[in-house]
UniProtKB/TrEMBL annotation:
This is MarR family transcriptional regulator.
Amino acid sequence: MLSEDDLAPADEELLGLLQEGRITAPYAAEETGYSTQYVRERLTRMVEHGNVKKIHEGLYEIIEDPRRR
């Protein structure tokens, strides 16, 4: 699991969107202004650390918010 200290500004924004519900990388990119590729990289990192789950091809949901530990 990532800790709050491990988060980049983009991660904070993505976690905020995930708190509202499931997201896709293109949607998150549009909402945050980051590139879709960068959003995918950040989401993949959070999946690898167990904070986010990829529930379907391109669809993500939060498991544990590192800001709430």
